[in-house]
Amino acid sequence: MKWLVLSDSHGMRGSVYDILDSHPDAAGLFFLGDGLDDVEYVENTHPHLQVYAVSGNCDRTRGTLEGVADCGGVKVFYTHGHLYGVKSALGPLCKRAKEEGAAVALYGHTHNPLCGTQDSVLLANPGAVSSFPSRYGILTVEDGVPSFQLRMI
């Protein structure tokens, strides 16, 4: 199964929908903040998608700030990242993911795409939809093993 991972759209709603429309087989969407208005209609326009969304520092904390989801038997911790100082270090984010029993931690905020492993946690930042070119990620879980791909449009 695959899940789309988007962050930091900052008003680029058209790019969000371009990404969604190019992956009709996606099971769900993680939106990691800073553009909640851009995804508020996704549930109406793409009703087959399970949407997980958090508020970012530019969303005026309208929604939840973090969450945990089960993706094909793999626990995924997701947050915008600003509360964990992700521009400086990823240790606090990794620690929080481990506290939640998560094998994957998804975050945004920096606008810089990244995928790596720290202390057995897959850490992934899709980059920013508002960048040129727009950046996003795909989280795939096969046989209980997560992987992450960085993409751009």
From TrEMBL:
GO terms, molecular function: hydrolase activity; metal ion binding
Cofactor dependence: a divalent metal cation
Q: Which domain of life is it from?
A: Bacteria
InterPro entries noted in UniProt: Calcineurin-like_PHP_lpxH, Metallo-depent_PP-like, Phosphodiesterase_MJ0936/Vps29
Q: Which Pfam families match?
A: Metallophos_2
The EC code for this enzyme is 3.1.4.-
Keyword terms, alphabetized: Metal-binding
**Calcineurin-like phosphoesterase domain mapped to chain residues:** 1-142
Q: Which NCBIfam families match?
A: yfcE
- Annotated family: Belongs to the metallophosphoesterase superfamily. YfcE family.
This protein is called: Phosphoesterase
Q: Which organism is it from?
A: Candidatus Ruthenibacterium avium
